[in-house]
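Thread: Modeling a multi-component assembly for a lab meeting

Hi all, long-time lurker, first post. My supervisor asked me to bring a structural picture of a complex we are working on to next week's group meeting, and I have zero experience with this. I have the sequence lines for every component (516 residues in total). Could someone generate the structure of the whole assembly? Inputs are pasted exactly as I received them:
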Amino acid sequence: MVIYGYKIPAVFSLLIWAALWEIAGQLELAFIFPPLSEAIYALGGLLQRPSFHSAALQSLESFTIGMIIAIVGGVAIGFLMGRFKVADDVLGMWVNIMASAPLSSLVPVLMLLFGLGQLTIIVTVVLFAIWIIALDTYAGVRDISPSLDEMGRSFGASRWQLLSKILFWAALPEILAGIRMGLIRAVKGIVIGQLLVSVVALGRLFRTFSDNFQFEQFWALTLILFVFALGFSALIGWFEHKVEYYAGTRI
Amino acid sequence: MALAMEAPDQTDTADHIVEVRSITKFYGSDVHALDSVDLAFPTGQMTTLLGPSGCGKTTLLKIIAGLLEPTSGDVFVKGKKVSGPGPERAFVFQDFALLPWATALRNVAFGLELRGDDRSEREERARHYISEVGLSGFEDKYPHELSGGMRQRVGLARALAVDADVLLMDEPFSAVDEQTRRKFQEDLLHLLGVEKKSVIFVTHSIEEAVYVSDQIVLLSPRPGRIHSIIRPEIDRSVSPDDIRREKNYLDTVEEIWVELRKYLD
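Re: Modeling a multi-component assembly
Sure thing. I ran the full set together rather than chain by chain. Output:
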């Protein structure tokens, strides 16, 4: 961002929002809206609570398991659709529908199916993340130059070598973009899922805080989730940057 | 210059490293790319497939490479019928087909990597061919750090490194600028003199065909058929610039142009 010739870091706009939040909070416009400073103060306390630790660990665990399943499954579905017309015909429509469907409405159904526990959270994460990963992988696979494929075959690559040494790497930039988007959706999924489930892990804390009008803690928790999602996204972004040099130069 | 004989009925492995017999290729049901093509490629020589676009020259090359299935007909390499790619043939691609995430060294060694050679062995071989094609010092560069001409040198080194008998080159210089292209042609001829390979070369440039070839196969378009076979018989002992001024060279270029222009309208 450049203002009057001064280069201003992008974080600066965050500071403006933070200041607005603080002012709005201090004016006591709404009781659900405490000043930022109080939320941050609450955050300090929250981070020391054992109940937060176990809840965060449980949520992180569900999230990680769900993401691993979503990545493995999504990449596999994307490759199948990209390489085999039959798979594309059979799966293509469904993956597209699922990727754009309002999945939050399914969470209560999942609760009925999988109970009020970790399994529901995992399934929610998978359901939110997998389709976009599959679609991006598919786009990446379809974008692979046919001559790379021919090169592999002409130098005697086996099916597995073709996949692991050529096709996977050629589609990697799109796969990573898909994972990043899937991740953000999964965080959304887990928040929505846990708010609805709200009997386990962080969802339970959210529920407790809002039921007891502890909005400082409530916002602190929200901040933690934000930071968490941004951190994850930045990590994937870093990987993407590592492969960027060839994403643009593929021929 | 002389017209060569038709392909013999019996496969003569001593003379012909690759033979195709009555190759026909349809794409779908209505695009007739090749019509009953019989051809023999002499061992140790450079044969060019030349013709206007749509004559099926790249299709024929890819069928020989085993990358495309002919609708009917057979391909023989060293007297043996083949279906699919094999280690006795190596392909050089028009768009280079390099791995963008791998260094020049790994790209050149890639054929050997697929074959399962161990690392030190294949890298030693790759280094040798990198220097053969004049890219010493660029081993650790990535394709996007190399010019078009250098990328194709990597592609050529990769094909040489697997030690195939036949090099199949699909318009290897068409994505390379004119000056680089001339230098590359000269280097290629020199290199092939050292490496003793048989080469099947596809181009749409008449000058290039006459300059590099021992034998030129002119194809006619839609469906691709053999129009004629020309042996330029150019004296390559003189300097490259003298070859390009030689009467025989110029006459052959002219004669082919007269034949090919019939198909242009």
